[in-house]
Amino acid sequence: MVFHNLVRNLTTVHTPYWDYPPTASVDWCEVNYEYTPYLAEFFNSLSSLALAFAGIFGILLHPWAETRFKTAFGATIAVGLGSVAFHGTLSKFTQAADEIPMLYSALAFAYITLVQKYNFKHSTRTFLAIALVSHAALTTYLVTAFEGKWQFILFHISFGTAQIFAVYQMFTIYRTHKVAFRDTECTRIFENGFKFYGFAFVWWIIDFTGCDYVNPFYSKAILPFNPQFHAWWHVFISIGLYNMGLFGLYDRMNQRLSGKEPKLKYFLNFVPYIVLQDIKIEKINYNTFEQ
């Protein structure tokens, strides 16, 4: 892979509204300002809203969820909005607004999985939270202080390891408790989430490493049109993240509400969410959930 500041400068006839050439450390495989002068990457910008909606559904459909889950879903909303800004402008500032929440979201889900898997006591949970926040602060500095290929490399090492760790921990929870879940729909939620994560990763790799072959802008292209793999990455990772987060929430409630197994329902017959059977939500003692 050749790092030429990772910026392709694929600009069409529209005069860019935002500063050009891009100041971000990376430019993706979409022709810039092709449809409007106000969005550098049209499809990548619009598809980023899927991440914001994943976080919104996570919070609004589960108002009784613990703070840790609301924090993780809230970070996902920030990722989506930051991604819209980043792909719309390709500036260094908006790139940070996209990437930093990505890291925070991964660390939030890592915290959730560790606490659920090992059932830490309060003092250990506090230490873990401080350690993760310190790691987030250090990484925030690194990815904003560096530019070009080193910024790109440092961010993806930091984010990638945190994300892989969180997904692996979620997988071990799934594998350990699969037999205990009588609701096979819930295990299917994790499996679907895991599959969409995999699809998303494949599309990201193709878009990043094979742009010369999938974008007709280049003479090497083997396709007559750009399939917008990075935009599909946004959609698939949103579905995967939401479903795996939902599985984590189900597992947590299954732990806390012995004998009252959570159930799955579908908002608009499409978006899965969790309901607590035989429990009046307004009478739940929220403080007990924070244990």
What does this structure look like?
By secondary structure, the chain is mostly helical. Helix content is 63%, strand content 3%. Strands 1-2 form a two-stranded antiparallel sheet. The longest helix is centred in the middle third of the chain and has 30 residues, at 148-177. It is globular and about 60 Å long. One of its GO terms (cellular component) is endoplasmic reticulum membrane. The chain crosses the membrane at residues 42-61, 73-90, 102-120, 127-146, 152-174, 194-211, 231-250. Ca(2+) binds at residues 27-28, 30, 32, 41. One of its GO terms (biological process) is ceramide catabolic process.
Q: How is the secondary structure organized here?
A:
Layout: H1 42-47, H2 49-60, H3 67-89, H4 92-118, H5 122-145, H6 148-177, H7 184-209, H8 211-214, H9 229-256, E1 263-267, E2 271-275, H10 286-289
Antiparallel strand pairs: 1-2
Helix pairs in contact: 2-3, 2-9, 3-4, 4-5, 4-6, 4-9, 5-6, 6-9, 7-9
Record keyword descriptors for this entry.
single chain; 291 residues; mainly alpha; Rhopdopsin 7-helix transmembrane proteins; two-stranded antiparallel sheet; globular; transmembrane helix
Give the structure's gist in a few sentences.
It is found in: Membrane. By secondary structure, this protein is mainly alpha-helical.
